[in-house]
Automatic annotation (TrEMBL):
Presence of the UniProt keyword Calcium in the record: yes
Pfam families membership: Transket_pyr, Transketolase_C, Transketolase_N
Quaternary data: Homodimer.
Its EC number(s): 2.2.1.1
Family note: Belongs to the transketolase family.
SMART domains: Transket_pyr
Species the sequence originates in: Timema shepardi (Walking stick)
Transketolase-like pyrimidine-binding domain location: 428-592
Molecular function terms, GO-annotated: metal ion binding; thiamine pyrophosphate binding; transketolase activity
UniProt keyword annotation of Magnesium present: yes
Protein name: transketolase
SUPFAM superfamilies documented for this protein: Thiamin diphosphate-binding fold (THDP-binding), TK C-terminal domain-like
Length: 744
């Protein structure tokens, strides 16, 4: 310890008053200078000045007299401290007044009376300017990007990452750390700049932005260790954040917080308001959504521009706590996030008034600069920003480590608690067995959850709710948010999420689903009420595009079970499959085809019926497989034999088995599906055999817009019934139909 000076610190008259310098084993001081001037009259019990595990460069208190209440103390814990100065901090008269420095909570080491943190606002502002400079440099190097959109959130990002958030720099996606979703993903350069500041990347790395061999893409993806979900298709990030927050509050029961930064332009998306409604309903007080209200959209000003009053009224109408701030005032932003942490039973919306291109001379708040590098104005803007940085030498950031813990979660090798329990031949709706499978899985692993959009009594997700209520999340009729919440719930491998609704309604959330694939999500989608076989409800309820839609998703697995046993096994397999999974469940009750111990593997088909005399390979799934089996009996009576194949998965398709059996059936394939022709089973089979000589494929599929009617009548009307199969097979094998008997 170099110097310790107390001046006029007399009259320490009570018991246990002390000045305490405690240096734990393994720590070296040194204390360069500690000066207290006129710190007299510390008259109550247990008053003390404590410095723990220095070094302390300088500590000065002037006129800090009359600290008269019990347990008043000045404490500095786990320095270093560059400088601490308190002037005229007298008359601290209430109980338990104290000065505490916790360096894990701030950068500067400054504290003030009352135990309140003193933040180095200048450092945060300087960091914001450096982030602006990095954003300009990166977009200039790539000759593309959004520097003005980065500039509007510079102070917000600085405060979030270098004051408010608690996370591990080395493992930012660990389960206990705070979460951050940049919903306005086009501002990716400033997020990357944060991690330059955190020394994960160099400034030279940042200059590879958007290059083909760089992981720093135009919009963030989970290829990066600090990104949970891909963003950039606007309006989606908040739902993902809400899913994370739900898991944190109700499953992990942890202290981590979730922050989502959205643009004012994307707040026109209905999915944003679906997410706000969800977050409010479930009292997600661990969620903070920050509106970057910078007034300007891509092509023109936003609808509300800087009408903060309307934003405030809207978010409050949705049940959120709202805080309006100047988004470029670090003091206001710090206070907003601190106040949000104290708000209970509702999420907080921080409404930040900002300006696009803030601190960019001649560019700030001007139109026609969206998505453009600064070009010839870049260098002068950077030089201007450098003049605003007050630090001669960059101050090292001290990041707050996460506190508390989260439960250990193991999502590997999840099995049904008991095998399927169905009888061969009994009629069971395939959708019903989805519910029984969920219960069996959750019995084994309580991190298996189901989400639904108010169709749980139709999809049978309600079976899980009845067995394990806490494992079910009702998302109501808001399919885009439903999908986003599921993606968020599955992040960081905290849950195995199954999402169900009518197959037709997933089309509304296709953008969220495709972004889920880019996010490397493992969410499982279950679409019931598929095809015209639902009957009287009519075409608005009939999922006829879903196979095509999910087949286009990179890496997706598309299950199409044809009975209750195969459906339960599909659910089990999906729980253990990486990437997006889709399970197509049918409404009608159909006979059980497989024994309860029948093994199933994705990409492996089943031969349901065969003989040495087969002339056609007929492929169907779900309802149409049963129509084919009915037709096979009638054809056999006519002396025509067909082989019947159940693909089980449409993607991956069992190409080898299809080709093998097609060649054993004279090279003739007939596909029958309760789906539109485009992108369905038939076209999947055509793609599989396209390069094979001597194989011909005929497709029976739904053509045109269907209508209401009985399931049997519709199957017949649209040419995918057993009757239609018989007719098609007869034509394929060139067996003329027997002459019709004349009626008298």
């Amino acid at each position: 310890m170099t110097s310790l000076v107390l001046t006029d610190s007399s009259q320490r008259t009570s018991d246990s008053q002390h000045l305490d310098l405690t240096i734990p084993v393994g720590y070296s001081s040194p204390v360069a200078s500690l000066v207290l001037t006129d710190s007299s009259q510390m008259t109550s019990d247990s008053q003390h000045l404590g410095i723990y595990s220095s070094p302390v460069a300088s500590l000065v208190l002037t006129d800090s007299s009359q600290m008269t209440s019990d347990s008043q103390h000045l404490g500095i814990y786990s320095s270093p401290v560059a400088s601490l100065v308190l002037t005229d901090s007298s008359q601290m008269t209430s109980d338990r007044h104290h000065l505490l420095y916790h360096p894990e909570r701030n950068m500067s080491g400054k504290t003030k009376a009352g135990g309140q943190q003193v933040v180095d606002y200048e450092h945060l502002q300087n960091t914001a300017h450096r982030l602006r400079i990095l954003s300009i440099a990166a977009t200039q190097a790539s000759n593309s990007g959004h520097p003005t959109s980065c500039s509007s959130i510079a102070e917000i990002m600085s405060v979030l990452f270098f004051h408010t958030m608690k996370y591990n720099k080395s493992t930012p996606r660990d389960a206990v750390s705070d979460r951050f979703i940049l919903s306005k993903g086009h501002a990716a350069p400033i997020l990357y700049g944060v991690w330059v500041e955190n020394n994960l990347y160099t400034e030279n790395d940042l200059l590879t932005l958007r290059k083909i061999d760089s992981e720093l893409e135009g919009h963030p993806t989970p290829k990066l260790s600090f990104v949970d979900a891909a963003t950039g298709s606007l309006g989606q990030g908040l739902s993902i954040a809400a899913g994370m927050a739900y898991v944190g509050k109700y499953y992990d029961k942890a202290s981590y917080r979730v922050f989502c930064l959205i643009g004012d332009g994307e707040s026109a998306e209905g999915s944003i308001w679906e997410a706000l409604s969800f977050a409010s309903y479930y009292k997600l007080d661990n969620l903070v959504v920050i509106f970057d209200i910078n007034r300007l959209g891509q092509s023109e000003p936003t609808s509300l521009q800087h009408d903060l009053a309307t934003y405030k009224a809207r978010v409050e109408a949705f049940g959120l706590n709202s805080i309006v701030v100047d988004g470029h005032d670090v003091k206001e932003v710090v206070k907003a996030f601190d106040d949000a942490a104290k708000t209970k039973n509702k999420p907080t919306a921080v409404l930040a008034k900002t300006f696009k291109g803030k601190y960019f001379p001649g560019i700030e708040d001007k139109e026609n600069y969206h998505g453009k590098p600064l070009g010839g104005q870049a260098q002068s803007t950077i030089e201007h920003l450098k003049t605003l940085v007050q630090e001669k030498k960059k101050t090292e950031h001290v990041i707050t480590s996460p506190v508390g813990s989260v439960p250990n979660v193991d999502l590997k090798n999840i099995k049904l608690s008991t095998p399927p329990a169905f009888k061969l031949g009994e009629k069971v709706a395939i959708r019903l067995s989805y519910g029984t499978a969920l219960v069996r899985l959750a019995t084994t692993n309580r991190r298996v959850i189901a989400l639904d959009g108010d169709t749980k009594n139709s999809t049978y997700a309600e079976s899980l709710k009845k067995a394990f209520p806490e494992n079910y999340i009702e998302c109501f009729i808001a399919e885009q948010n439903l999908v986003g919440v599921a993606i968020g719930a599955a992040c960081r491998d905290r849950t195995v999420a199954f999402v169900s609704t009518f197959a037709a309604f997933f089309t509304r959330a296709f953008d969220q689903i495709r972004m889920g694939a880019i996010s490397q999500t493992n969410v499982n989608f279950v679409g019931s009420h598929c095809g015209i076989s639902i009957g009287e409800d009519g075409p608005s309820q009939m999922g006829l595009e879903d196979i095509s839609m999910f087949r286009t998703i990179p890496g997706a697995t598309v299950f199409y079970p044809s009975d209750a046993v195969s459906c339960e096994r599909a659910v089990e397999l999906a729980a253990n499959t990486k990437g997006v999974c889709y399970i197509r469940t049918s409404r009608p009750a159909v006979p059980v085809l497989y024994k309860n111990d029948e093994p199933f593997v994705a990409g492996h088909s089943k031969i349901v019926k065969q003989s040495s005399r087969d002339e056609v390979l007929a492929i169907g799934a779900g309802v149409t497989l049963h129509e084919i089996l009915t037709a096979a009996k009638e054809l056999a009576d006519k002396g025509i034999h067909i082989r019947v194949l159940d693909p089980f998965t449409i993607k991956p398709l069992d190409k080898a088995n299809i080709i093998k059996h097609a060649r054993e059936c004279k090279g003739i394939i007939l596909t029958v599906e309760d789906h539109y022709r485009e992108g369905g089973i038939g076209e999947a089979v055509l793609s599989a055999v396209a390069e094979e000589e001597g194989i011909n494929v005929k497709i029976l599929a739904v053509e045109g817009i269907p209508r209401s009617g009985s399931p049997e009548g519709l199957l017949d009307l649209f040419g995918i019934s057993a009757k239609s199969v018989v007719k098609a097979v007869q034509q394929l094998v060139d067996h003329p139909s027997p002459p019709t008997k004349k009626k008298y």
